[in-house]
Amino acid sequence: MNHQPFETWLLDDKHLTAAEKRDLNSHLRECRNCSALAETGLALRSTRTAAPAPGFALRFQNRLAAQKTAERRRLFWGMTLFVTIGLGLFGWLAAPYFMAFAAAPLQWLFTAGSYVLYTVTSLHAFSEMLLILARVLPNFVPPYAWMVFLSFVAGVGLLWMVSIWRFVRKPMRVTA
Ligand SMILES: [Zn+2]
């Protein structure tokens, strides 16, 4: 069957005269090829006009802005919650001290002062004790024991330094 010139008319989407239209219609009735082609052309023409719905860009921008606002709001409430919990925890921990101070400021100051004094005195006493021990011990411990002790301390110190050195060097090695 000869499909020309109908095939060309259909493919070119040609504007037809009345006589040409009649010829084409009679050919389409007999020819399944050209009628299929005509249907495809109709389908293509109907989808070619598919454009984004009106206001699409505006709606997209609005949605984007709404999303940003929601994100900002989430961040704000997250920070608020974080700060509130932090302050609450701090208040809960510090409240006894504040209450004690508010109830009796002088007594609180006295207690704090005596605590500091106690710490200083204990440290002082401890250092005194160490000094006394250092002065007294050599008289009780024989010299060779001191040599053993000192070499032991030196050995441990050396081991410690080596282990630190290896620990520090290890991460620098490049693994293949
Ligand atoms: Zn045909």
Description:
By secondary structure, this protein is mainly alpha-helical. The chain has helices at residues 6-12, 18-30, 32-48, 56-103, 105-140, 143-169. The chain folds into four domains: 6-48, no CATH class; 72-103, no CATH class; 104-140; 143-176. Helix 1 (6-12) runs parallel beside helix 3 (32-48) and helix 4 (56-103) crosses helix 5. The longest helix is centred in the middle third of the chain and has 48 residues, at 56-103. The chain is elongated and about 135 Å long.
Provide a quick synopsis of the model.
With about 180 residues, the chain is mostly helical. The chain is built from 6 helices and no strands. Zinc ion (ZN) binds next to helix 3.
Beta content comes to under 5%
Instruction: Count the DSSP helices.
Output: 6
Which oligomeric form is depicted?
Answer: single chain
Order of H and E elements: HHHHHH
DSSP summary, beta strand count: 0
Each distinct ligand:
zinc ion
Number of domains: 4
Low-confidence stretches: none
* Helical coverage, percent range: over 70%
Explain the layout of strands and helices.
Blueprint (H helix, E strand, L loop, with lengths): L5 H7 L5 H13 L1 H17 L7 H48 L1 H36 L2 H27 L7
Helix pairs in contact: 1-3, 2-3, 4-5
Bound molecules: zinc ion.
